Structure formats: C-alpha cells, structure tokens
Amino acid sequence: MKSILLKLFIMLCISSVGFAADQAITKKVLISQVIEHPALDATTRGIIDGLAKKGYKRDVNLDLRIESAQGNASLAAQIANKFAMQEPDVVVGVGTLAAQSFGKYTANDKVKLVFASVTDPSKISIKNTTGMSNFVKLEPQLQLFKKLQPNLKRLGILYNPGEGNSVAIVRQLETICPQFNIVLVKQAVPKTSEVPQAAKKLAADCDAIFISNDNTMLSAMQSIVKAANAKRIPLYVSDTAAVADGAVAALGPDQYSIGVEAGMMIAKVLDGQDITTIPIKFPSKTDICINGTAAQLSGIKVDKS
Amino acid sequence: MLKLRNICIKPVLQNLDLELSKGEFVVVIGANGAGKSTLLNIISGNITPTHGQIVLDDQDITTVSAANRSVAIAKVSQDPKVGTMTNMTIYENLAFAALRGKRRGLGFFSRRSYKKLFKSKLAMLHMGLENRLNELVANLSGGQRQALSLIMALLADSKVLLLDEITAALDPNTAENIMQIAAQIVRAEQRTTIMITHNMKHALEYDDRTILLANGKFSKQFDPQHRKQLTPSVLATEFC
Amino acid sequence: MSIAELLFSLELGMIFGIVAIGIYLTFRVINFSDLTCDGSFVLGAAVSSILLKSGYNPFLALFAAVFAGVIAGLCTGILNIYFKVTAILSGILIGFMLYSINLKVMQGVPNLTLINETTIFSGYNPLVILAMVSLVVWFIMSYFLVTNFGLALRSTGQNSLLSTTNGVKIEYMTMTGLALGNACIALGGALFSQHQGFVDISQGIGTIITGLAAVMLGEKLLPFRSPWIMIAACFLGSFLYRILVSYALHSEVLGLSTQDLNLITGALIVFVMIIPTRKIQTC
C-alpha cells in the first residue's frame, strides 16, 4: 500500500509539470494581497478600477488574478513564486509582506513589481519596483487636529506593535508632537480582542485618540468609538472611509483612491514605460473629512473654513 | 542484606520490620488492600514512607530517588504493558534495560555483542523469543511480554528483585510457565527476591519463607520447617 | 505547476522539513505537546536577522538562532518540570511571551528587511545550500536517535514509568527533547528569513499546523521505524505539503477562488491521510 502511495506521489510530481498554458495576447497582472481586510480589499478594487480607467479591462484584454496570503509568510512566498513563474507583465504586492515576498524575483529581473498600501517603501527593494505608498504626512494631520481642538494637549495613539506601518508612524510622531506642544500618549495593543480595554484606559488619559492606518485598530473601530464617546473625546483617523463609522476627522486619502493611483501606475508599465522612470508616489490628494455628529458628541465646533 | 525498620505509611503500614539475607526468596501474602504493593513501591522508591528506614547492604537508601535506586532494585509488575515498551522491538527493550544505572552515551545501541547476550538470555525462556529480536513488542502475547519484563529486570546486576503478582494477568498454563522460569533463574543466579502472590501453591513451592501481611504488619511467618503441615487451603484461611 | 514551482516547493519543503523535525522530536519522541514553536520560529529568524544587519557572518547568525531556540525550549521545560505547569500550557505561555521578546530582539520594528545583507544564499543556488544544511541536520538528528542516549529519550515518550525504573531521569530527557526540538524550529525560522530576505513578527503563526501536517504526511508515506527514515520522512512530508499547497493555488482552473485555499489544502491533506497503509513495519 505504501508503494502505491509513493507511486501516486511521483505521478503527482510528474503530472504537475506543464500545467495551464499561457495566453500571450492579453496583458497579465497578478496581485498578491497580504491578508483579507476591508482596507486592503478596497485598495485592490481601486487597482482594478484604475486599470480599467486606463483601458485595461479585466477579462477583456487583461488577465488579472488575485491571491490572498492570509497573513502567512510562507504562503506569501509560494504565491510569489507561483506568480513569478507565470511570466506576468506586472506583479502587484498589496501590503508590505506581499510586496517583500517578490524581493527575490525583482532582484534577478524576473518580474516587475508595483506595490500598494506599503507605508515604509524602504522595506521593499528598489530594483524593478515602483508603487503607491499610503504614508500620509503627519504634520498636516496634527495641524488639523489642533485647529479643531485648540486645547489639545495630550494625544493618545492606539496601535498594534506588530504592524510595521504603525510602529514607523508612532516613532515619527514622537519627534513631531513636541513641535506642536502635544504630549503623545502611546498605547500598544497586540490583539483585536484587547482593543476595548486598551481604548477605555487610553480615553481616560488623553484629550483625543488617533489611530492612523493601523489595520488592527480599524477592524475594532466600534469599540474605540464607544470608548471615545464615553469620555466625550474625539477620535481621529487617517483613512477618510473610517470617518463615516464614527471618527471625528481624517486628513488623508482613502484606501480605494490609493488603489486607483496604483492601478494607473501599473497601466503605465503595461503601456511600455520603463519602470525605473516611474517614481514611488505618496498620497498627494488628501481630503479633510469630518463627521458632524461625532464632532458634536465630543464638543468640537466645526468651522466650515 | 536488605533491612526495613519501622516503616510507616498511613493508613496501610505501621511499624513494619523486615530483614532479608542475600539470596533469600521471600513471599509476601495477604488480603487485598493489606499493603503488599505499597510495600514493594516503598522499597523501589516510588512511594516515600512517612517514617522508617530502608537499609541496603549497610547503606541507608530511604532518601534516594527511584531512578537512582533502580540499579540496585529491580521490579517486575503485574501489568505486562507497564513492564515493556509497546512500540519498540524486543532488542530495543533489552538494550534499554541493559544500561540501567549506566551512563547512556552517544554510542550506537545496536551492537553485535548485545545481540549475542540477549539471545542467550532469551533462550532461557524457551519461548523462541531469541529468534524474534527485531519484532515489535506490541505483537507479543501477555505472557511473552511478562517473560520479557522479567529478563529486562534481571539484565542489570541488581541486588534485590521485586516481583509484584507477575502471574496475575496470565492464564493458568502461562502463569505456571512464567513462575517456573522466574524461580529457576532466581535460584540459579542467587538473587535476593521478594515476591507478592495470591497463588498459594506458588508461595509454598518456591520460597524460602512466606510472610503474611495483615493489619499493616507482618503478622505471621511460615518457615520451611513447618512447611509439611501447610497446604494452600490452610494458608488461605490465615487471611480471615 | 512548472518545474520551477516544484523546485521552489522543494526549497520550502527542506526549510519547513527542519521545522517538522523539531515538532517530531517534541510531539512524537518525548510525547510532549509543545506549542512554543510559533514563538521559537520567529525567535530564530529575529536573532539571525539582527546579527545579519549588524554585519556578522550569516552562518554564525544561524548558530546563534539555534542557540536561541535551545534557550526557548529550556524555558518551556523549566515551566513544566520545576513549576509543574502542564505541558500544553507551558508551551503556550512561552510562545506567547516570545512575541514580546522577539519584538525586543528586532528592536521594536515588527518587520525587518534583509535585501542588502549577505545571507548564506548570497551567490549560491539556494537549493544546493539548503540540501547541504538539510543533510547535516538529518544526519545529526538520526544519529542521535540511534544512540543509547537517543533510545533513552524515546523511552521517555513511550513509557515514562518504565523509564524511571530503569534509571532514566525524565526531567533531563524532557529538557533535552525540548531544547533540541526548538533548536530545529529556530533554525528553520532563520533559514526562512534569510531565504525570503525579510523577517516579520507574524511569520510564526501557523507553524504548529504546517509542522504537524508535515510529520503526519511523512509518517503516512514512510511508515518505517528506523530513525534514519523517520527523520527523512519529516522532509518528505513537508515537501508533499508544499506541493499540495501549490496545487491548491492552481485551483482557479476548477473555478475555485483564493478564499477556498485553506479548504482545498485541508481536503488534500485529509485525502492523503485516509488512504489506508500497512501497519508500521519493523526496521
């Protein structure tokens, strides 16, 4: 019986060679997303729509496939390998882990990588790479908060120390906040389940809570809104889409438009432009988004200017 | 050679004394719950008595751990599954037992010299096990496993051998066989032995003296001289 | 699936085969359900990465990772033996605490890139390097299990009572098994991070599942008892697991989507597991 099993195994290996054939006519774009998450899903949707805007329509003249690595690094590695072997025109990494897993292949010219939703592009190798970062400058955001809340002294920040983007932002805030006469109160929360307690604790200790683009905090948004409302303090975010969920204000692009811009960059590469001539972009189009009801709740007067 | 003084463990044993000379074969009998297995566990070190002293060859071993005592004191229990490693071969079981008390280093456990030694030891059993060294113990019957535990216990040069109802889980024929083999080896090698049994026939046939454990103490001793008057049924009545 | 994907599965199969050996040592040999693995996998990667970034020799970084794994395993052992915490909880606790320790080792940054560092793979074919490392690990672990010490270690997992009555110190054996097991897992983590060019604090999640799947698949494929074969089976099982994942990734041909990946991989594993095999043969 074991010999049958071994034979099966060998057959599996042999038959696997020479699998699905290629269609050379259409352009091939393969997207690897680090994990299923509303923010990242929105970015991917944006990419597809951005490509469509530039004339590359899915299933018409574009072979587009999406895989999620489910937050698993070894799965990301296998996905990257599979994509690289399929001779794509462009591979897309949505999220830092996904983008990093293509590192080996960009290094030896196997693929061209366009990333999206990576806060710190220095983590991705430069060769054959470009992309759309989601890092929003912090100074304009702090300015907005100060404008809305002139007596803002203590700004609390909730973040997951396991998310590189958030850690980078916290570090930057530590240097910038003193310039605005703000004391930064940090609260690290490694798990979604611990958010309600941490939010309550932080809300008691500061004048406003900021959660930037932290994925863990965004997924536990409602608990933080509750905690902030209980203490009548405002909640600030960097994702304009989250404002509708109860945050008071955000200065930033939304994840969808980041995706659209990334999609347009991909289209440029598909059109034949040399990837080295396309610089990495940071969100330029930022919106101020304010939630009137939430603002009232925390006693903020909104001046239309 | 082995002395037990004033051993107490609540609620079973109180102020128990026992003395064994080298090469003696003593049988302990008693009702269920009298404390026979407890006594053997105390000697082997698995249970610590609340009071008392155990002296082996003029050395106080009361506080020595079970693992450290295992060189000097070998035990065969009644469950064949406890006495052998089910998922190892006969050879591996014996190779494992052979190093009792010795340093287990980084040499291969598979050796020709071991194979020869084990074959000769197993041949004593007359069960054909010496030809099945590479067979898994899981494939052996209860009696064969019990015989194997016996050989394993006898491999290292232990001073005292404890037999805890070794035939209890076996059918009458196998029980008889195992008992004979055990007694033969013990006699031939002059091993100091304490045996627990419910089988009165065995008690009378193989021992130097039989002791009755009741009420936490050794209450009666039956010497060889008075053996002739004893029959299994007479012995059995002593229990009540 | 192309040949290149097959070879990549082989590479990952070897890295995670070493991890599977670590799981085999704890779960099977000493019968200790050790859940430290998710933490020690990242610990190995973190230690190796920090040393690489500080300019140390990449092989030295691997050794340091192994050493770190040993320490992690010993901690679990200390919790279990001296503080009498149950086996599963000890592993969970140490794995849990390692999350913070790993972040500390990575100096607070949850994701480190190694693109510009020299790794053991720089300039060489990764398949060759991994084959060499795997061969060394296979030899050391198999040899260890066929010694008298290794036999005593195995006995601990089989019948601890009999072990004790034969003079084996269970505490010592448990510590050794945990130390060696986690050393292998940490080595796997270090190799993975050097292979991929980055280390991420989350990359340990799911190590226990892939490890156990590899061990069980290996046992199914090569149901022999010789330690040399058992250790080799860990590599084979890991390789098969990676191939199954690779297949599942191609399931769009069947009209399935990316969300069904876990379902498909699981189904494939179940299929392999339920194929009946002969009883375990003697060596």
- What is the percentage of strand-forming residues of chain A? 15-25%
Order of helices and strands of chain C: HHHHEHHHHEHHH
CATH class division of chain C: Mainly Alpha
Largest protein interface? A-C, 49 and 53 residues
Task: Write out the strand line-up for the largest beta sheet of chain C, numbering strands in chain order.
Answer: 1-2
* Count of helix runs of chain C: 11
Our measurement of the CA-to-CA distance between the termini of chain A, rounded to an integer number of angstroms, reads 78 Å
Describe the structure.
The complex is a heterotrimer of chains A (305), B (240) and C (283). By secondary structure, chain A is of the alpha/beta class. Chain A has 2 domains: 26-135 and 255-284, Response regulator (Rossmann fold); 138-253 and 288-297, Response regulator (Rossmann fold), CATH 3.40.50. Chain A is 41% helix and 18% strand. Chain A is built from 12 helices and 11 strands. Chain A has helices spanning 2-16, 38-53, 73-85, 96-100, 103-107, 138-148, 164-176, 195-203, 215-219, 221-230, 255-270, 292-297; strands spanning 27-33, 62-68, 90-94, 113-118, 129-133, 154-159, 183-188, 208-210, 235-237, 249-252, 287-290. In chain A, helix 2 (38-53) links the parallel strand 1 and strand 2. In chain A, helix 2 crosses helix 11 and helix 8 packs parallel to helix 10. The longest helix of chain A is centred in the N-terminal third of the chain and has 16 residues, at 38-53. The radius of gyration of chain A is 22 Å and the shape is globular. The model of chain A is unreliable at 18-24 (pLDDT under 50). Chain B is of the alpha/beta class and 240 residues long. Chain B is built from 9 helices and 10 strands. Chain B has helices spanning 36-44, 66-69, 80-83, 90-98, 112-123, 142-155, 172-189, 200-206, 232-237; strands at residues 2-9, 13-20, 25-29, 51-56, 59-60, 73-76, 160-164, 192-196, 209-214, 217-222. Chain C has helices at 3-29, 37-53, 58-81, 87-105, 126-145, 148-158, 160-165, 170-196, 207-221, 227-249, 261-274, and strands spanning 111-113, 198-200. By secondary structure, chain C is an all-alpha fold. Chain C has a single domain (3-109, 122-273), classed as ABC transporter involved in vitamin B12 uptake, BtuC (Orthogonal Bundle), CATH 1.10.3470. Chains A and C meet through helix 1, strand 2, helix 3, helix 4 and helix 5 of A and helix 1, helix 8, helix 9, helix 10 and helix 11 of C.
